[in-house]
């Protein structure tokens, strides 16, 4: 059957997933997991939109395992995401940026997918109604993983240890990854390894509708997104790179700076317009800020599926096997030529 889209066709995420299943691209269990993730995202979208009305702005009062203040919406979104995945009955292990350790769930089905997620990334923007997003990645269970998951005291119980081992896989093992951006539109971006598909929530019907398929990131793009407030803490090589972007060059026009401080928003713009997003290591944060499992690996899988590149400045993000679940890595992601350029400066 032809997959060509005609002008009158409306493809929802649900029908798209079922077609992928029919074509053998994903299995039935993956369809269910992805459908449950999209439900979680719709719920979070509604919570984010109504936050100031339902008194969900502000901090929760707790600090997460990584020493960050949790916002009320961080906590609620984490619950929504976990509950949707649990109810799917098709996830074996879930790991969240907001939880200390990965948790085992249902074991009754053959799928038992491993899902990693950041339920509400960029939540420091939330009280000002600026873009935020949810990020996720899906792996197969991997008990042969060679990572030594034992802690120093050897006190990890076997279930917990098995969960950590399952989660500590390199991004190159990802079967699916995506994000949902809560912005002027609610945008769900997904790859199951056959290109990048963009769905837009139609608030009239509560359905995600396919709005872009096989997205390709421009090979180059003159927009850079770095938190330059950290400039003084950066390595000299990186300073030289960013300085070079400000030189007008032959075209007479330097690069434009754009930085939301919300990875999903900054990444989505980079995907569509081209350019580069970077979160470097610096004197204070030796490995940068972003998490390999929940942020860098899923985004790198998506960018590669769109013909772009994700790097830690020296190597491909997807080749890095995590040794800790909350591990951080520097991230340079976007158009191939722009990421190549920063790698040259850092070499
Ligand atoms: P979070 O997971 O605690 O929300 O932090 C991740 C966010 C990213 O969305 C964003 O790109 C980055 O932190 C911004 O950090 P900074 O404020 O240091 O520029
Ligand atoms: Mg985050």
TrEMBL record:
EC number(s) reported in the record: 3.1.3.11
Domain Fructose-1-6-bisphosphatase class 1 C-terminal per the UniProt entry, residue ranges: 217-346
Domain of life: Eukaryota
Subcellular location: Plastid, Chloroplast
Catalytic reaction(s) noted: beta-D-fructose 1,6-bisphosphate + H2O = beta-D-fructose 6-phosphate + phosphate
Domain Fructose-1-6-bisphosphatase class I N-terminal residue range list: 12-213
Required cofactor names: Mg(2+)
Pathway this chain belongs to: Carbohydrate biosynthesis; Calvin cycle
One annotated Gene Ontology cellular component of this protein: cytosol
Keywords: Calvin cycle, Carbohydrate metabolism, Chloroplast, Disulfide bond, Hydrolase, Magnesium, Metal-binding, Plastid, Transit peptide
UniProt key word Magnesium: yes
Main location, first listed in the record: plastid
GO biological process, one term: fructose metabolic process
GO function terms (MF aspect): fructose 1,6-bisphosphate 1-phosphatase activity; metal ion binding
Quaternary structure (record): Homotetramer.
Family label: Belongs to the FBPase class 1 family.
Protein known as: Fructose-1,6-bisphosphatase, chloroplastic
Organism: Digitaria exilis
Lineage: Eukaryota, Viridiplantae, Streptophyta, Embryophyta, Tracheophyta
Residues of the full protein shown: 106 to 452 of 452
